[in-house]
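Render Mur ligase domain-containing protein in 3D.
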Amino acid sequence: MIQTINDFQRVFFIGVAGTGMSAIAQYLKGIGKEVAGSDRYFKPGENNETRTRLEAEGILCFEQDGSGILPTTDLVVVSTAVEDTVAEVIKAKSLDIPIIRRSELLAIIAKSKKTIAVGGTSGKSTTSAMLFDILQYAGLEPSIISGAGLVSIIREGKIGNAKVGKGDWLVIEADESDGSIVQYYPSIGLLLNVDKDHKEIDSLLDIFATFKRNSELFVVNQSHPLAAPLSQDLSLDFSWDVERSAGFMARDFKQEGLSISFTINNTPFQLKLVGRHNMENALAAATVAAHVGVDLTKAAEALEQYEGIYRRNQVLGQKNGVWLMDDYAHNPAKCAASIRSCQPLANKVVAWFQPHGYGPTRFLRADFVKEIAEALRPQDEIWMSEIFYAGGTATKDISANDLINDIRQLGKAAFFVEDRNDFVHTVRSHLTENTVLLLMGARDPSLEYFAQQVWNEL
């Protein structure tokens, strides 16, 4: 029975190239475990950047054929996407090797450290990265297990979503989408927001209420109406809404070009980012850092140097009068926030979105239509390509074109281009001078390459 971090030494990850899995794999390697893994994206003779970087860390990588599972393997880790028919699962069962889910292992890791668990339906990766940078700048040598690559860690030649520090603190993302957030018992729990995403609001509120009960100290975003009632103590909380007071208040927000500025309890902050939502993320990070003992001035100094995370409002450059930005936005609130964050930059925003999963798109159809339509100015446009299908069983009874037609009926400029490879050619005449072209989507590992393709074709 695997109950603590000391109950195993040799661990194997099925689906190790996934963001959440690769982060834990790297962390365990960093604390001295023997780590190996396989992935369906690892093909004989094909280059895979994630595989290369994992192997550079000393993590053994295999094709998904069962060859990596050995009688000496102590533990096998699976993600929710791994089915029982996968060769490694069959072999692990035949060898009677314990199999646990990624979230269970993360909960075991979290018990071994003073953990800060970042929860909420939007902003977890950015807030975790900001908090990690603040704690590191303050000399606390924290660790992080994240859902996205920090640019500062990527510069070291790593994937960027994990790092082992010598200090006591560990920053993790606590995922509500699969309910695994209830498995964590953190020293500090942080709740950023509550929006309909993978689950209905009532289910989310129940999950976050358990998250609160499991946290020693609980910090809440008072400016988010659904999160606010879960407060443990207003003095611990943060807000940017003047009508919702809290211990840490952000004011004086301004966006000039690709930078934002604001104050937190009269301490000035300036970041090389866009969007009010990034002020909110920085406010959350600075608040939690203050509870750990890092003063706001030190947090402001750290965030002035913050380099961002991969595919979060990432500016790829400007070409022929068009700014190209790539973003991981994938739920209604995130898409709307991403569009709004680009509007101060140019007279026109042309946003492209690739929904992922037929079930999630069907579940969120009305919310996508409402949030995106409300975010668009009269001169802005939304484009979509067909829903990303990752395989498995799915009822394909909805199309991205259905969302486009719904948005068009609300009087907004909305367009469908089924094959994203036709997008640049089709949209070119819509890209006037002083335009932001915003790419949005998640879960599809090829999106980063698509962004580069768009840049090359502009």
